[in-house]
Design brief:
alpha/beta, Alkaline Phosphatase, subunit A, 2 domains, seven-stranded mixed β-sheet, two-stranded antiparallel ribbon, 22 helices
C-alpha cells in the first residue's frame, strides 16, 4: 500500500497520467470518426505534442494541468457525446442545448448514460486530485527530465505540423477548426458565445420589424386556425404512416386528414427547428432570424386573436420570443418545480377553455407539446402504457424493446390529444383547420450505429423524417374548396416542413403579406417543390446530400419511397 501511494504521488507519474488522460478522447475518436485516416492521425499527434510540451513548462505538472483544464472539460463532454452519438465533435448546437435545456431534461438524460458519465468523471476527477497532490508536494520535476521531454515533445510537434500541412494539401475540404479535436470544440464554443450574445440582443434588433399583414377574410366570416407542434415525434412510429403498430387509432379513423408522406425537418434540434417553423427564415437565411418576428405577429397584424400554449419550460430562446408574441400566453410549467412533470393534457384543457369563450371572429391557437421527449416513460400516465413492458432502466441497446414500447406509448398519447382537439374544433361548426408537425425525430438504437436521441451534429434518417398533416372542418372545405383541393393534391410531394409551414399557415388562414411566398404554400396553386435543405451546426443551409447522412440513412429513404436528395 505504501509503495502504491508513493507511485500515485510521484511527480513523474502525475506528469504522464495527466498527459495521457488528455489524449484519451482523441484516441477514441480515431476509431469513431468518418474523416480520413490522415486527419485522425493528425488529431492524435498534434494535440498530444502540444499537451506534452505544455506539461514540461512547469516544475509541478499539477499546475500545468490547470492551464489545460478546458481540454479536460472538452474531453469529458466529448466522451459522453461519443456514447450518445457514436461520432462527431462537441458541436455549437450541443453547447447551446446546455443553455436552453432545463435541469430535469439533463437529469433524465445523464441518468441513462451513467457508464460514459462515470468513466469521464472518474478519469478527470483523478486528474484534478492528482494535480492538487502535485501542487502541494515539495518535490518537483528536475530540470533535465523536463528538458528531455520538451525536446521530444517539440520533435513530435514538428511531425504534427508536417502532417497537418500534408493534410491541407491532399484534402481540400480539411480545416483544423472543423476536423481536429479539441480545436473544433474551442471554435464551436466561440460560435456558441456569439449566438448567445446576438440572441440576447434580439429585442432591439427586431423591434421595428413588421409584416404589414392584412386579412383577406371578411370580418363577418369566422375562422379558427390551430397549429400543434410536436416534440421528438418521428413519422416511422405513427400508425397513419404505415407503422406496424396501431399507435394512432383515433387519427386513423378521422376523415379529412391530409397526410404528407414525404416530409422531413431541416433541423434535428428543437431550438432551431421550432423557430424555423414559426417564421419565414427557412426560405431566407438563418441570420435573418435576429431581425424579424414570427408567425404569430403576422396573425396579430391581420386582426386575429392569438393564443400560445406551451408545455415546455421557458429558456430565453427564439421559441419563447415567437410564442410570447401572442395576446394570450401560457407556459404550463411556469411556477412548477423542475422535478415535476406536467402532462400534455394540460394543453388540451387550455385549448378547450379558449374555444369555450370563442364568440366568432378570427382566432389562432399555437400549441407546443412536450410529446415524445426522453425520458419517454414520463410523458404519459400509467394508464397510457398500452405497449409493455415499458420500464426502461437505462439507455442501452439491450433495452431497445422497452424504449420503443415507451416511445410508442407517447405517440398514442399524442394521438388522443390531437383527436380530442379536432373534436373540440368540430363542435364549433365554423370554418376551422388544424395543422400538426413535429420539430424533429429520434434515434432509438435502430441500426448498427447504435445511435440514440437527436441533436447530433450529423443527422440520421430517423431524426429527419417527421409527421406533417392537416385537417379541416367541412365548413372550411365548403368555403375554401380550392385551398383544400390544393392541400390534398400536394400530399405526395417531398417537402421540408420548416420551409412550407409558415407560408401554408398564412395562406390557409387568409393572412396576406409580402413575406408570404405562395410557391411554398401547400394550399396554393402556385406551390412548387423546393430543394430540401439541412441547417448545419454552423447555421449553413446545405443540400440534403451534404448533411452527412450515411448509406444506412439513404437506404431508409429509398425503402420508404422518399425522395433523396
Amino acid at each position: 500500500m505504501k509503495r502504491f501511494k508513493q507511485i500515485l504521488t510521484n511527480q513523474k507519474f502525475i506528469f504522464w497520467f495527466i498527459t495521457i488522460s488528455l489524449i484519451v478522447t482523441n484516441v477514441m475518436m480515431f476509431f469513431t470518426e468518418s474523416t480520413s485516416t490522415l486527419t485522425r492521425v493528425v488529431q492524435i499527434v498534434l494535440p498530444f505534442a502540444i499537451y506534452w510540451l505544455v506539461m514540461t513548462l512547469g516544475k509541478k505538472p499539477g499546475k500545468m494541468f490547470w492551464w489545460l483544464f478546458i481540454v479536460a472539460f472538452y474531453d469529458a463532454f466529448e466522451i459522453v457525446l461519443l456514447k450518445l452519438y457514436g461520432e462527431t465533435p462537441l458541436a455549437v448546437d450541443m453547447l447551446l442545448n446546455v443553455t436552453t435545456t432545463n435541469v430535469t431534461e439533463v437529469n433524465e438524460l445523464l441518468s441513462n448514460l451513467l457508464p460514459a458519465v462515470l468513466f469521464a468523471v472518474i478519469l478527470y476527477m483523478a486528474c484534478i486530485v492528482l494535480s492538487i497532490v502535485s501542487i502541494r508536494k515539495k518535490e518537483t520535476l528536475d530540470t533535465d527530465y523536463r528538458r528531455r521531454n520538451r525536446k521530444r515533445a517539440l520533435a513530435l510537434l514538428g511531425v504534427g505540423v508536417v502532417l497537418l500541412a500534408v493534410n491541407y494539401f491532399v484534402t481540400p475540404s480539411f480545416k483544423l477548426r472543423n476536423d481536429v479535436f479539441p480545436f473544433n470544440a474551442a471554435y464551436n464554443t466561440g460560435l456558441a458565445v456569439q449566438r448567445v450574445i446576438k440572441t440576447s440582443n434580439y429585442e432591439n434588433t427586431s423591434r421595428d420589424f413588421s409584416y404589414h399583414a392584412t386579412s383577406t377574410l371578411p370580418d363577418s366570416v369566422p375562422q379558427i386556425t390551430v397549429l400543434i407542434i410536436g416534440e421528438t415525434a418521428r413519422a416511422d412510429n405513427w400508425g397513419i404512416y404505415g407503422y406496424e403498430r396501431n399507435t394512432t387509432p383515433r387519427l386513423g379513423a378521422i376523415d379529412n386528414l391530409v397526410i404528407y408522406r414525404d416530409a422531413i425537418t431541416m433541423s434535428n434540434t428543437t431550438h432551431k427547428s421550432v423557430p424555423l417553423l414559426l417564421s419565414p427564415v427557412a426560405s431566407e437565411a438563418w441570420d435573418s432570424i435576429y431581425y424579424r418576428k414570427g408567425l404569430i405577429s403576422a396573425f396579430n397584424e391581420a386582426g386575429y386573436r392569438t393564443s400560445y400554449y406551451s408545455n415546455q419550460r421557458r429558456n430565453h430562446s427564439f421559441i419563447d420570443f415567437f410564442g410570447c408574441e401572442a395576446q394570450d400566453v401560457v407556459f404550463t410549467k411556469d411556477n412548477v418545480p423542475m422535478t415535476e412533470n406536467v402532462s400534455d393534457d394540460a394543453l388540451k384543457s387550455l385549448v378547450e377553455r379558449r374555444l369555450k369563450s370563442y364568440d366568432g371572429g378570427h382566432l389562432l391557437i399555437v400549441v407546443h407539446c412536450y410529446g415524445s421527449h426522453f425520458n419517454y416513460r414520463d410523458r404519459y400516465p400509467a394508464s397510457g402504457a398500452y405497449f409493455k413492458p415499458d420500464n426502461v432502466v437505462a439507455a442501452e441497446r439491450s433495452q431497445r424493446d422497452k424504449l420503443v414500447n415507451a416511445y410508442d406509448n407517447t405517440i398514442r398519447f399524442d394521438d388522443n390529444l390531437i383527436a380530442d382537439i379536432i373534436e373540440l374544433l368540430r363542435e364549433k361548426n365554423v370554418p376551422a383547420l388544424l395543422a400538426y408537425t413535429s420539430d424533429h425525430g429520434e434515434d432509438i438504437y435502430d441500426d448498427e450505429r447504435e445511435r440514440f436521441l437527436h441533436a447530433s451534429p450529423l443527422p440520421t434518417y430517423y431524426q429527419l423524417r417527421v409527421p406533417l398533416f392537416v385537417w379541416s372542418t367541412t365548413q372550411y372545405q365548403t368555403r375554401y374548396p380550392e385551398k383544400w383541393r390544393n392541400l390534398a393534391s400536394h400530399r405526395d410531394i417531398a417537402v421540408s416542413t420548416n420551409m412550407v409551414l409558415f407560408h401554408t399557415m398564412l395562406d390557409m388562414s387568409g393572412v396576406n403579406t409580402s413575406h408570404l411566398k405562395t410557391r411554398l404554400a401547400l394550399s396554393h396553386s402556385d406551390f412548387k417543390p423546393a430543394r430540401r435543405l439541412f441547417v448545419t451546426d454552423h447555421n449553413e443551409f446545405v443540400p440534403l446530400d451534404s448533411a452527412g447522412l450515411k448509406q444506412l440513412d439513404i437506404d431508409m429513404f429509398n425503402r420508404n419511397h422518399l425522395r433523396y436528395p
